[in-house]
Every structure is written in C-alpha cells, then in structure tokens.
Amino acid sequence: MQDTLAHLKRGERGIITDVSSIHIPLKLLEMGCLPGNSVELVQLAPFHDPMYLNINGTHLAIRKETAAHILIDKVTL
Amino acid sequence: MSKQINVALIGNPNTGKTSVFNALTGLNQKVGNYPGITVEKKEGICKLPRGVKAHIIDLPGTYSLNASSLDENVVIELLLNRNDKDFPDVAVVVSDVENLKRNLLIFTQIKDLEIPTLLVINMADRMDYKGISLDIDYLEEHLNTKIALISTRKNTGIDNLKHLIANYKDISVTPCINASEIDKTYFENLRKAFPNQLIYKLWLVITQDVNFGKTDRKQIEAVDDFKTKSKADLKRLQQKETIKRYQFINNVLKLGQTIDVSQAKDLRSRLDRVLTHKIWGYLIFFVILLTIFQAIYDWSSIPQDFIDSMFTSLSQWTKDILPQGAFTNLLAEGIIPGLGGIVIFIPQIAFLFLFIAVLEESGYMSRVVFLMDRVMRRFGLSGKSVVPLISGTACAIPAIMATRNIESWKERLITILVTPFITCAARLPVYLIIISLVIPDSRFMGLLSYQALTLMLLYLIGFLTAVSSAYILNKILKIKSKTYFVVEMPNYKLPMFKNVAITVIEKTKSFVFGAGKIILAISIILWFLASYGPGEQFNNAENIVKTEYISQNLSNELLQQKIASHKLEHSFIGITGRAIEPSIRPLGYDWKIGIAIVSSFAAREVFVGTLATIYSVGSDDVDTITNRMSKEINPITGGPLFNFASGISLLLFYAFAMQCMSTLAVVKRETNSWKWPTLQLVIMTAFAYIVALIAFQLLK
C-alpha cells in the first residue's frame, strides 16, 4: 500500500509524491506541499492529530484527515 | 503639490509586514474598515526623499492571489481594479529571509499583473544566524525587480527602501513566467475572446469567487468556451500553475540563495519540543493563562483606584466651581460619572491587549492552536477558535473578526455564536462593583479571597457556557462545509516593542472612544429623562412631599431626600422604569436596576454609568458609586437592595445576556444575515433571564 503523510511517525521523513487529490486545499500547495519536496513530522498532538510538519523548511500543522490524502515515499535514514 | 505615490504592502502572514509598515509610517497611521466589510484597513503616510509623499496601505497577509477568506479578497480586489483610488503605483512584497521561497509565489503572481513590484527581504539581521546568504544582484536580475534588504529590528535598510519606492518608475513590469503555458489552448481562446484584457487578470477573475464589479465576470461567462471547465478542472489548473511557479522560483533560488544548514542554530525545535509537548505544552499554556489573569487584576487595581477617586473629585470640583444650574448638573451628574465608568477600565483593557499582542507576535499563539485543535473539534470548534476565545476576554468585537482565518464555515459560525459568552472586559466593571457589594471581603482558609474566587468562577462559567453551547450547536446545525485546517507555525520571535506598543495604543483607543461615544450619549439622555418629568407629581413634588410629611416634623435634610426620590420616581425615567418593574421584580431588581439593564443593551459597561447617573441626580453630596449602591434599600423587604440573592442573580444575568449592540452589528456583518445576531440576542437573553430568575428564587 502507498504510504500517506498520516502514516508518518515522529521524527520520520518522506518525499511527497502526489498531491492531486481534490481534498487537498490549494493553500497547502501554495505553502510548499508539492511533489518532490521533503517532509518531516516534527510533533504530534495527542491522538495523532493534528500533525506538525516541516515541509521543505515551511513549518505548518494540518489535520490527519488531510494528511491522509497526501501520498509520500518514506525515507529511511 | 506633487502627486502622492500609492504603495501597497503585500506578503505572507508572519513575515513582519506590519513591522515594515510601522517602520515606514510610525504613528502616522490610521486603522479603518473597508467599505461594507469589517476587514481592517491600515493606511499611513510616509515621507520620501525630495518632499515626495507615499500613501501606504498594509494589506491583509496572504499566501497567494487565490483568495480563500474575506481578508484575502481585499488584496486581490484591489490589485485587479485599476480604477480604485488606492490602486498601487507600486506593490511592495514583504518577505522574511527564512521564507523567501514561499513569499516569491505571490510575488510572481503580482508581476503577472504587470504592476511594478518591489521585493523587501526583512529580518536581514538573522541571515548569519540562519546560515543564509543571498546574491542580491542575481536575484534582482532574474526576478526583474529591485530588492531592499532590511531589518526592522535593527532599523537598517529603511532609507534604501524609501529611495526605491520613490523611484518606482525604474522597476520593470515584465512578468516572471508565462502562466498561460499550463493550458495553451484554453488561454489562447481566452486571449482571442478578450484581446484588450490582461490574460492573467482574466484567469484570476475566472478562478476567484470575488466581487469584481459583476460585469467583468458575466462577460467572460457569456462566452461559451469558458463554461466548459468544471470546478475540479479549474482547481487542477491552479495546482499546475502553483507547481510551475515553484519550479521557476526553485531555479532562481538555486543560484541566488545558499543555505548552510550546519550554521543554523535551531532554537525553534528545542522550544517546540517543550511548548507543543503532550503534557508540558498544556501545562505551560495553563500557567500562562493563569499568569495573565492574575497580572491583570493585581496590576490594574492601583491605577483603577486612582481613576475612581479622581472622577469622584472631578464631579465634586465641577459642582463647587461652576454656578448652580442645569448645565452644571448635567456635567457633574450625567457626563462625568458616565465617563468615569469607562475610563476606569482602561488599565485592564490595555493589559489584555498587551498580553494578546505578545502571544501573537512571539509566534506562541500558533502552538496553542496546534495543541487545542483536537480538543476544540469535539465541541464543533477549531483549534483556531482558541484565538477568538482568548481575545474574547478583552472584547467580543475583535474576537469575532479574528475568526476569519477559520477555514470551515461551520466551525467559524459556531465560534462567532459562542464567543459573546466569554467574559469580556465590559462585564468586568459590572462584576467588580456587584462582587464588592454582595460577596464578603474575607478569605477562604485565610488565603484565597472570596471576591477573587467569585470572579474566577464567573470567567469559568462564561467559558464553560461557550463550550457547551458550541457542543449543542454542532449537533443542531446542519451545515456541510469543507473542514480543512492549515496553520503555519512561524518561528519564535522576541516581540518588537514598537509593534506591541502601537497595537495596544490603537486597540485601547478605538475601544475606549467607541464605547465612550455610546456612554456619553446615553448618560446625557438618561440625565434628561431623570431630571424632567410630566405632570403634577413631578413638577409639584416639593409641595406634595411637604404636605405628606407635614405632621412628622422631618429634618430638612431628610425632607430634601424624600423630595429628590419622589421626583426621580415621577420623572420620565421613573415612569418607564416602573412600567418594566413587574417583569424584573422576580429576579430581585428594582426599577433603577431595570433602567440600568435596559440601557446596558447598548453596551454592558453602561450599567455602572447608568446607576451612577440615576443615583447622582438630585443628591447634593458626591459619593463613590459603590457607597451609594450599598445604601439603596429594597422598598419591599426593607433590607439592602443589593444583597446576596439579587447580586448573584444580577451577576448571572450579565454573564449570559447578549447586551452589546456593537457585537450584534459585527455578527451581522460577518455572517451576512440578521438571522444569527437575532438568535443570539433572543436565546442568550432568555437564557440569562431564566437562570437569574431561578438563582434569585432559590437564594432569597
């Protein structure tokens, strides 16, 4: 199964592969959430939601339900 | 006179755009509203070299020209309308040095509109610290622009920026990229259909839900070809456009910017590890809240006592110095006590705005949003509702305006509807005066004062009511709306003194003057209504009372008091008050409190001023309002009017009732319908009445 951002654990990294889902707000892309960019999970709120991410240097938080639409490849360190 | 240059400041939120604005204009600025909407319009004048002046607008922060909120609409409406009197001669895009890439997105969009565009890179003082170096010449060449590298914190580069603004005509208007490549045939058709229009402007008009003077849009939709694209298709094209822009930006930055990561000292991640921690994060947030409240009450009481006694002496002084007459009475009994009622809580409001400004400026507020989102969502709110709920402790009006960045309409609506339950600063004077009258001034276990505990309890009640009504509304309201949530987590910054000071001064000023006008008007009206009356009973009061008490041989002083109260009872206000008295007697109030409650519907803080005015009319001795209230006697029981039962009932009434015209007006504007403010008014007030009724009947 394809990994999504929602599967990321704390401190893990990934490379964004696909953001074409209609459920992803344009604003997120504008903030740099684009294919090819690296993403790191900085912090999780209780219950894994929302997620505090570092996408290519931009720090932002999104809800898990949105994260589940963003496809990634996990990067093993 | 030379023409003013119109300058628009544009940029992402949290990039220090406001600092640049403050650096350019100083205190030479004013905050107004855009016509018809409540978006704050900040504008100011900046003196440029050689006597030229620039008119500067600080536009709301936005990530792109694809608007998703009212605030962002303002930006694109202005940039697309060349006939607007504020249409910029030059657009100044403000970026910070760390987030240059993200800010260049909107920069390239504005360039496509062929508006001369300057790039300001702020926080240059942090470059070494972050290991960033920039090749300015290279960037200027490839972005077709001029760049001002500045630091508002260290106050460097501002003169260069002014120089560049003055010479805006030298800036190239060549676009950076060709957006029409994302769908060549579509854009080619667009070009053919509207040969005289700028192609990128047409594209924005098609994709945005913005009001551009309707004709533009209809024209485009009238041409068959442009209906064929579905919403999803358009969104896909927008995604494509964004990706294309970032490709361009990445290519430019590859050579124009180097970041040496090993140089970067990361304070952020260390702070975040604690401040967003599952346990420590919440604990720290709670401690911060406690500190704020503690500080506000402790620190404000000294200036407040001073203001209180000052106004009392001012009243007395006016009476002594001016010749007796109607005007003196109006001044000493109507206007001065009325104004005293508002001036007294300037210290508290200023402190509240100070803390909120510091939390926002430092970047901490976003962490709170992150921490609270999950919890708030259970109640149908958003993490972003925390900001309005906290600002609501100052005033519901800015709080309701702060809901704009909540993306989901349902979550935003619920936040707007429940925010007025939060104990705002206007309730404070009412609470404080009643608490001081009815709650004993002693300490629980010799430590915690009962009065302070009551006050805390009232704040808690306000908050819990807000949250539980949100829960109920979430169950009742059947609104489908997209529920995404994106919040930027800006880097931590030491708040800049100048920014915080300007915010505190501006907000306090507008709050005090806004409320001050209402209070002044109401005080004057009330004074007239209380000083004049119809018919024999009022005009002949002296004789009537004298005849009535002729056998009792009263002292002159007592007789004068009887006359004054007889007059008041038969004045216009007394007649009105006694007409409504039956409906409020079950709550434990007399007609004077009734009048105060009715006038409170203009604004809650009017309560104290109203009672001050009513009790001042006709009495010669000047006393503090608290003393006067404690002397009031309930004519039925013979005990003091403000006792435990009626006091608690009043406190609860003020905790729940919707008594603020300005809030209702803002809710109307923000929800664009009378339905919601009407519901708020009716439901909250009815609820307040019932709770106060039950409380009084149980306690009496």
Low-confidence stretches of chain A: none
The overall pLDDT of chain A, averaged over residues, is: 89
Largest sheet of chain B: 7 strands, mixed
- DSSP summary: helix tally of chain A: 2
Q: Which CATH class of the domain at 1-264 in chain B applies here?
A: Alpha Beta
Characterise this structure.
Chain A has 77 residues and is mainly beta. Chain A has a single domain (3-75), classed as Ferrous iron transport protein A (FeoA) (SH3 type barrels, Roll), CATH 2.30.30.90. Chain A has 2 helices and 5 strands, in the order E-H-E-E-E-H-E. In chain A, strand 3 (51-55) and strand 4 form a beta hairpin. The two termini of chain A are 21 Å apart. With 700 residues, chain B is an alpha/beta fold. Chain B is 60% helix and 8% strand. In chain B, strand 2 and strand 3 (40-47) form a beta hairpin. Chain B is elongated. Chain A binds chain B through residues 19-20, 22-32, 34-35, 42-43, 45-47, 49-50, 52, 56-63, 65-66, and chain B through 63-64, 66, 68, 98-99, 101-102, 105, 232, 235-236, 238-239, 242-243, 246, 268-269, 272-273, 276-278, 366, 369-371, 373-374, 383, 407, 482-491. Strand 4 (58-62) of chain A pairs antiparallel with strand 12 of chain B, so a sheet runs across the interface.
Quick gist of this model?
Chain A has 77 residues and is mainly beta. Chain A has helices spanning 26-30, 64-67; strands at residues 13-18, 38-44, 51-55, 58-62, 71-75. In chain A, a hairpin with a 6-residue loop joins strand 2 and strand 3.
Keywords summarizing the entry:
heterodimer, A: about 80 residues, mainly beta, SH3 type barrels, five-stranded antiparallel beta sheet, 2 helices, about 35% strand, B: about 700 residues, alpha/beta, Rossmann fold, two-stranded antiparallel ribbon, 12 strands
